[in-house]
Amino acid sequence: MTKRDIASQDATTLETAPTRYIEGHGIRFAYRRLGPATGTPLVLLQHFSGNIDAWDPAVVNALATDRPVIAFDNAGVGRSTGQTPDNVEAMARDAINFVDLLDLSKVDLLGFSLGGCVAQQIAAEHGQLVRKLILVGTAPKGGEEHLLAVLQDAFSKTDAPDPRLPLFFTTSPASQSSGLAFLKRAKVRQDDRDTDNGSAVTDPQAKALITWCATPDPGHAILRAIRQPTLVVSGSHDTMLPASNAYAMSRELSNAQLVLYPDSGHGALFQHHEMFVSHVRTFLDAQPVAA
Amino acid sequence: MTKRDIASQDATTLETAPTRYIEGHGIRFAYRRLGPATGTPLVLLQHFSGNIDAWDPAVVNALATDRPVIAFDNAGVGRSTGQTPDNVEAMARDAINFVDLLDLSKVDLLGFSLGGCVAQQIAAEHGQLVRKLILVGTAPKGGEEHLLAVLQDAFSKTDAPDPRLPLFFTTSPASQSSGLAFLKRAKVRQDDRDTDNGSAVTDPQAKALITWCATPDPGHAILRAIRQPTLVVSGSHDTMLPASNAYAMSRELSNAQLVLYPDSGHGALFQHHEMFVSHVRTFLDAQPVAA
Asked: Which end of chain B is more exposed for a tag (fewer CB within 10 A), N or C?
């Protein structure tokens, strides 16, 4: 923990924490910081098209009860300035700059979807910065994605109150009901709410995700470069980035735990939020097995 | 809970609980009962060649802090009388008879390895008896096993203090060190210790496991018949019953959560015992997501 963190820590929630700004490297980053002053901060890397308020308060607030949690908008996203890059490598550089501005020397990373690609890139290239890694609903470089087909299908469902219902949840009544509960939680905040993203964000982000999956990574060089303990999580029926990605990643990573949730899609972490929080905590709190 | 359970409950450990006996259906079953009087009992189904004292006290005692846990010798095994059958179906009938003798109308099952095959058979055929199911280091009917090759390899390692070191743990220093710690825990009990099994047990058990995996199950009828919430667990590098079995089972079961542990073999639940106990608890305590 740094002086800056200790001075700025507070115990609010995702819905009530003030949005803060920090500027450097030509970008003014928007972020919120929750939880206690001490402990390794958990930095959240958001999915395609999402902003700070697209995180599930049930997940973020629960995780912040016993560790610092930082949600932020990467360059160009939400209320951060700058341009959204069209490639994962540049997004990783922007995220590193943000972490650097906060003066954090060691973090845990939780990357969801596109954010999981960024998290892999950071962990592979900046191993000393990352203590533990959580990859949710994501793909390895060269992995399998169905982003455009799934988006097209979701936006054709004009009766859905929010595209995230078909995008993030399965068609089962239980999953859809969880989806409605998630949307309700995510829409509570009214004041100082983050800005929705338009095509200036989603176009380059889509290109970045598609390119990441379309680019072979011979010998799984990125996964092999990741030495941190890693928790890989997926929904059983993720239509955008299938669970087979998660299984494959867990086979190639040197120290990965895999968790797949039943009857769930891309938003498995929101559907099974209590279980997910419990698994993340158990993983982050685990001491290394003595050799 | 039944009158019998409440009358017999005590708060001892696997190492100190008296071995009890209950007789019926022509068999005198040896068992130990730990934990509180109330709650759905968790019945443990043991691996090939194992007896009651082959369970890890670290796992059993931790699980028994907040639920009744019952470890037993199935017919012919350890200090139970009767003949060890050479097929999973008959083992399932014997286990059902044991549960019946204890007057339990609803149980959770934790089946490890061969015990996981037996647990699948019970859950598929006696759905009303089983609340939740935990399958560890096991295979579906028609699945993949390397029992004889792995046993041969393990018994050729004459320098290993116990065949379970090469059988249950990977070659990494961390895994082997966990293996030594497990063996130490499992060998604490001296008085009233369970009887080791000879070929009258292991020969038919080996035949049962090999036959189970060699017999196709068209349309995964057994997995499809299982409707209970199921937690499927495997070590990343299980050489006897590979992790691919666990992944495949989680795809076919209607309501399965999958957990794979890093750098671990067949004994992943003993190596990662704290994590495993946490995951089992989280799974068993989870309320169904409302539809």
From this structure: C
Question: Across the interface, do A259 and B261 touch by the CB < 8 Å criterion?
Answer: no
Residue B279 belongs to what H/E stretch? Answer: helix B273-285
Token pair 């070929």 in the structure block, residue: B199
CB A203 within 8 A of CB A83: no
Residues present in chain A in total: 291
Contact state of A178 with B289 under an 8 Å Cβ cutoff:
yes
ipTM for the assembly: 0.92
d(CA B197, CA B192): 15
Distance CA A220, CA A207 (A): 21
Contact A167, A241 (CB under 8 A): no
Q: Would you place residue A5 in the very low, low, confident or very high pLDDT band (cuts 50, 70, 90)?
A: very low
Specify whether the CB–CB gap between A191 and A13 falls below 8 A: no
Residue of A253, A289, A291 with shortest CB distance to B271? A289
What are the structure tokens assigned to A221, written together?
């060089």
Query: What's the pTM?
Result: 0.94
The phi and psi torsions of A18 (rounded to 5 degrees) equal: -65, 145
Pairwise CB contact (< 8 Å): B236 & A229: no
Bridge-based pairing of strands A20-24 and A42-45 is unpaired
Task: Give, for all 291 residues of chain B, the pLDDT tens digit.
Answer: 444 444 444 558 999 999 999 999 999 999 999 999 999 999 999 999 999 999 999 999 999 999 999 999 999 999 999 999 999 999 999 999 999 999 999 999 999 999 999 999 999 999 999 999 999 999 999 999 999 999 999 888 888 889 999 999 999 999 999 999 999 999 999 999 999 999 999 999 999 999 999 999 999 999 999 999 999 999 999 999 999 999 999 999 999 999 999 999 999 999 999 999 999 999 999 987 554
Q: Is the dihedral of CA A185, B290, A162, A69 positive or negative?
A: positive
All residues at 6 or more sequence positions from B219 whose CB lies less than 8 Å from its CB, including other chains: none
Could you please state the CATH topology (level 3) that the domain comprising A3-285 is classified under. Answer: Rossmann fold (3.40.50)
Q: How far is A230 from chain B (nearest CA, A)?
A: 9
Query: Which chain A residues are Cβ-neighbours of B257 within 8 angstroms?
Result: 259-262, 275
Q: How distant, in Å, are the alpha carbons of B55, B89, B251 from that of B51?
A: 8, 19, 31
Determine the Cα–Cα distance for residues A143 and A155; give it in Å rounded to an integer.
24
